[in-house]
Design goal:
The protein is mostly beta strands. About 5% of the residues lie in helices and about 40% in strands.
């Protein structure tokens, strides 16, 4: 029995927040059209790196996919219940078990067999014990209004690590981590990784991890400069020494500004970064604008490209993302819902990237949507295309608009290959 047969045998349909799904329209999921030969790729299980390799014959494999439509609530929940609450700042990974996992702000966790149909399975995926007093007393003296924001989950060596922000509105603290042998969790808290002010990073939230040649890097920051710092090879401490003081001194000296600039809060800068690589180029996705104001939200995803992991990350106009601020945002536009009345979505941003078995890139991001009258943020999915300068963007939808989120259109989703 292949995965497609398993999927169709589920007792109840699983519906993604903001996305409805049906069988792959117009295609035989077991016998793809001759013209759908996949792009040759290799990737880590988390899908963050894609490299060109000699073509591999997939004639003995089948593929299966689901169509999706951004704009239908609710998401699946254990049993036959529903879940219409927020799923924001999505971090999407592919587990060693072949399942897909999504983690969001405030400890929400979902899972999927196909990266289209999702099921809520945990609303407290990480227990962080006494963090409110331990972390807050170092920074504020209390834990009032603090929460677990914007996690990023990735496999480092043989363990899965859940990196999280401890923050409240106007009260950023720093970055912590939790560990599990399984991407499904539960994750056991490892405590503080670092306090933002200790390393000279203001508004220190939104960690994102990238691993290359055994080195573990983190991008972090929000509207006051985005920085690249290096972690130890096990991902559980800052690089630079045995003690926290030694690590802080090293990070403070060696952190690299990769987008925005140190300043007061500036909404033309960035937060919610996501670093990945295609071929020899590094890509930094980042969100700019207002994230959390319903139909007034202007959140927008941008991307810059670099030859080195440390940058400079530039748009196709050659201007680096470090120039951004004072009402100017640089890089190439990836997705933007627009402003004004009568739109189906607002505030598109804080993305993850997933690469399917056919080599296509998929962006997962959150937005306020018409389906629940823009009540809260839900995650959406769209396919990325590549322009003549090799920059990604959300492709043309059925209404003919590029770089806009799809909505109410049934579109082909990610493709996954199975042995017959």
């Amino acid at each position: 029995m292949n995965k497609k047969q398993i999927h169709l045998g589920l007792a109840a349909p699983l519906i993604l927040l903001g996305i409805s799904c049906t069988a792959c329209a117009g295609k035989d999921p077991v016998n793809p059209d001759p013209g759908t030969k996949p792009t040759p790729t290799t990737m880590r299980t988390d899908g963050r790196i894609i490299e060109d390799v000699p073509y591999v014959d997939n004639s003995k494999k089948s593929y299966w996919c689901e169509t999706y439509s951004n704009g239908t609530l609710p998401a699946g929940k254990d049993g036959n219940g529903t879940y219409t609450a927020e799923v924001a700042d999505p971090s999407v990974v592919r587990g060693d078990d072949g399942m897909f996992y999504m983690f969001g702000t405030n400890r929400v966790a979902l899972k999927s067999e196909d990266a289209v149909n999702w099921q809520l399975y945990n609303t407290n995926i990480v227990t962080v014990g006494n963090w409110a007093s331990d972390w807050a007393k170092e920074k504020y003296g209390d834990g009032n209004g603090l929460g677990i924001w914007a996690p990023d989950v990735i496999k480092v060596q043989d363990q899965w690590i859940y990196y999280y922000s401890v923050s409240g509105w106007g009260r950023p603290v720093g970055i912590g981590y939790a560990v599990s042998d399984n991407p499904a969790g539960p994750f056991i808290d490892g405590g503080r990784l670092f306090i933002g002010e200790d390393v000279g990073i203001q508004n220190c939230i939104d960690p994102s991890i990238f691993i290359e040649d055994g080195k573990v890097y983190m991008t972090v920051g929000s509207f006051q400069g985005e920085y690249l710092v290096e972690l130890t090879d096990d991902g559980m401490a800052l690089e630079g020494g045995e003690t926290y003081e030694e690590q802080i001194a090293y990070a403070k000296k060696n952190k690299v500004l990769i987008a925005g600039k140190p300043s007061g809060w500036d909404g033309a800068q960035y937060e919610g970064t996501y670093l990945t690589k295609k071929g020899d180029s590094y890509y930094l996705f980042a969100s700019s604008g207002t994230c959390c104001d319903g139909t007034n939200s202007t959140y927008t995803v941008w991307v810059g490209k670099a030859d080195e992991i440390t940058g400079p990350y530039v748009g196709s106009d050659g201007k680096p993302m470090t120039l951004s601020g004072n009402n100017n945002t640089y890089g190439n536009l990836v997705v933007y819902a627009g402003v004004g009345e009568g739109l189906n979505a607002y505030g598109t941003g804080h993305n993850s990237i997933l690469i399917d078995d056919a080599g296509d890139w998929w962006i997962y991001y959150h937005a306020y949507i018409k389906a629940d009258n823009f009540k809260t943020r839900h995650f959406l999915i769209d396919k990325l295309e590549w322009d003549e300068d090799d920059y990604p963007f959300v492709g043309e939808n059925q209404d003919g608009k590029k770089k806009r989120p799809s909505y109410d259109y049934e579109l082909d989703g990610p493709r996954w290959f199975d042995e017959e």
